[in-house]
């Protein structure tokens, strides 16, 4: 009986690789890499997403909403369609930024927003300031924003137009970089 068992083991060892070769269809050395388009394309997408970030005390710091998010691992970033980023200030203020498109690196250090960028900053007092531009770099963790493009700022009866801007939503400061023009109308 041990001779039959030995023959069976030898047959399994000899036939195993052949059956595996037939079963897989190709030898391991013949396997190719996936097409380059699959290596460099998106690895996942999400629709109707909303992410929330909380501080150490459990208070809501920021939210990101987008109808579509496409992640690209080779670039270590996500492309956002119609993103909305809301920043919550420690003083109760709320800053909402929207755009046509956006790019968000995996480290989430900054959001690059393009196309009809609008920032609506609502202070805790209820006063609202609207900032309009075509491109904006937003740093959500530090609540800073900057652009080199034309920018329009609207607040109550005041309008400013400029080229370039840096803003701190936490400190409530706005620095216009060049070609600044302003208009203030008194209420009657």
Brief overview:
The protein has helices spanning 2-24, 36-40; strands at residues 44-54, 60-72, 77-81, 84-88, 94-98, 101-105, 111-122, 128-139, 144-155, 158-168, 173-184.
Keyphrases for this structure?
elongated, 11 strands, 15% helix, lipopolysaccharide transport protein A fold, six-stranded antiparallel barrel, mainly beta, 2 helices
Describe this structure in words.
This protein has about 190 residues and is mainly beta. It has 2 domains: about 1-30; about 35-185, lipopolysaccharide transport protein A fold (Sandwich). The chain is about 15% helix and about 55% strand. It has 2 helices and 11 strands. It has helices at about 1-25, 35-40, and strands spanning about 45-55, 60-70, 75-80, 85-90, 95-100, 100-105, 110-120, 130-140, 145-155, 160-170, 175-185. The protein has a 6-stranded antiparallel barrel with strand order 2-3-6-7-5-4. The chain is elongated. The termini are far apart.
Total domain modules: 2
Sum up the overall morphology in one term.
elongated
| CATH top level assignment of the largest domain | Mainly Beta
Give the termini separation: 111 Å
Radius of gyration: 28 Å
Residues in β-strands, percent? over 45%
What is the helical fraction, as a range of percent?
10-25%
CATH homology group of the largest domain: Lipopolysaccharide (LPS) transport protein A like domain
Strand order of the largest sheet: 2-3-6-7-5-4
User: What is the count of DSSP helices, taking H or I runs of 4+ residues?
Assistant: 2
The averaged pLDDT comes out at: 86
The beta-strand count equals 11
Per CATH, what is the topology of the largest domain? lipopolysaccharide transport protein A fold
Give me the secondary-structure category: mainly beta
Corresponding CATH architecture of the largest domain: Sandwich
Uncertain residue segments: none
> H/E element string?
HHEEEEEEEEEEE
Q: How would a crystallographer describe the biggest sheet?
A: 6 strands, antiparallel, barrel
Membrane topology: Single-pass membrane protein
Pfam families: LptC
Main location: membrane
GO molecular function, one term: lipopolysaccharide transmembrane transporter activity
């Amino acid at each position: 009986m041990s001779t039959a068992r030995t023959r069976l083991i030898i047959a399994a060892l000899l036939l195993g690789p052949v059956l595996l070769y037939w079963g897989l269809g190709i030898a391991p050395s013949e396997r190719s890499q996936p097409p380059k388009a699959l290596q460099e394309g998106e690895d996942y997408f999400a629709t109707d997403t909303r992410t929330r970030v909380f501080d150490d005390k459990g208070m809501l710091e920021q939210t990101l909403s987008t109808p579509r998010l496409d992640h690209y691992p080779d670039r270590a970033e996500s492309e956002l369609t119609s993103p909305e980023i809301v920043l919550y200030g420690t003083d109760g203020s709320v800053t909402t930024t929207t755009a046509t498109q956006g790019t968000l690196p995996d480290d989430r250090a900054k959001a690059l927003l393009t196309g009809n960028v609008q920032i609506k900053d609502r202070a805790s007092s209820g006063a609202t300031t609207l900032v309009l531009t075509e491109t904006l770099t937003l740093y959500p963790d530090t609540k800073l924003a900057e652009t080199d493009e034309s920018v329009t700022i609207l607040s109550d009866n005041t309008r400013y137009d400029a080229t370039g801007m840096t803003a701190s939503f936490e400190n409530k400061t706005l620095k216009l970089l060049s070609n600044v023009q302003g208009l203030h109308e008194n209420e009657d």
